[in-house]
Specification:
By secondary structure, this protein is an all-alpha fold. It has one domain. The chain has 9 helices and no strands. Helix 2 runs antiparallel to helix 3. The N and C termini lie far apart (67 Å).
């Protein structure tokens, strides 16, 4: 009995380290992608940023930090504090959805009004990322009583947000993809890390990774296909002017 309990504790400890490591890696990738245009904009000679962009950056950064803190609390065994912080994280997540959508649209509108050349990924990609985050994170909150589901869905929801910073990493690294496609491919690489973890530790893919990952990939395909349709192109143009 003691041996079985020891194995269970070791598995939980390994799982907590894995998700904490994934949270830390996503923080680093987010910083790397946004450093030239936001976090270290002054050092890189970037343009002056609007108040909306600053609010957007602050709220999305707060989410990434909360995700790291919440994962760290679980890793440290402080489930009690994790549950106290949880409602704050939910409020931040709810605020991020309209903020992310409005920032994506207004940024394109401002660029069009100033007759600047198109920059950043097409509108469907950041909008799709925010909506994917909303669905997966909401699903994770609904499954908060089932820890294995909750932590995997929360990881996938947060990973959806990395599409934009990883698109910038693609551009800076001169990878042989468009930034939008590169952001998608790099997030899929991280998704494969979760798949590999499940297979290595349990010999099978966890249902949350299976269904959440399938939804994650499906939204990527929808974005790519939708962006090629004249109807979406016309709709996006009507939104951004």
């Amino acid at each position: 009995m003691a041996t079985v309990a020891g194995r269970v504790n070791e598995r939980l400890s390994r799982e907590r380290r894995f998700f904490l490591g994934m949270a830390g890696a996503m923080i680093v990738l987010t910083f790397a992608g946004f450093a030239p245009s936001y976090y270290l904009s002054g050092a890189f000679g970037g343009p002056r940023l609007s108040l909306l962009v600053h609010v957007h950056g602050a709220i999305f950064t707060l989410w990434m930090l909360l995700y790291l803190v919440q994962t760290g609390l679980i890793s440290a065994g402080r489930v009690d504090v994790h549950r106290i912080v949880g409602p704050v994280a939910v409020l931040v997540a709810v605020a991020m959805v309209p903020l992310g959508i409005s920032t994506a649209i207004i940024t394109k509108q401002v660029a069009a009004a100033a007759h600047l050349p198109p920059s950043g990924p097409p509108l469907v990609f950041p909008l799709g990322a925010v909506l994917t985050f909303a669905v997966l994170t909401g699903w994770a909150v609904a499954m908060r009583q089932r820890a294995a589901w909750h932590k995997r869905l929360m990881l996938l929801g947060t990973l959806a947000l990395l599409t934009t910073p990883l698109a910038r990493v693609t551009r800076m690294s001169h990878l042989p993809f468009t930034p939008a496609l590169g952001g998608i491919i790099l997030t899929d690489v991280i998704l494969l890390v979760l798949v590999a973890y499940d297979l290595r530790t349990t010999g099978k893919l966890h249902a949350a990774s299976q269904w959440g990952g399938a939804f994650f990939l499906l939204t990527q395909v929808i974005r790519i296909v939708l962006n090629m349709t004249p109807a979406w192109q016309a709709f996006a143009k009507s939104l951004t002017g």
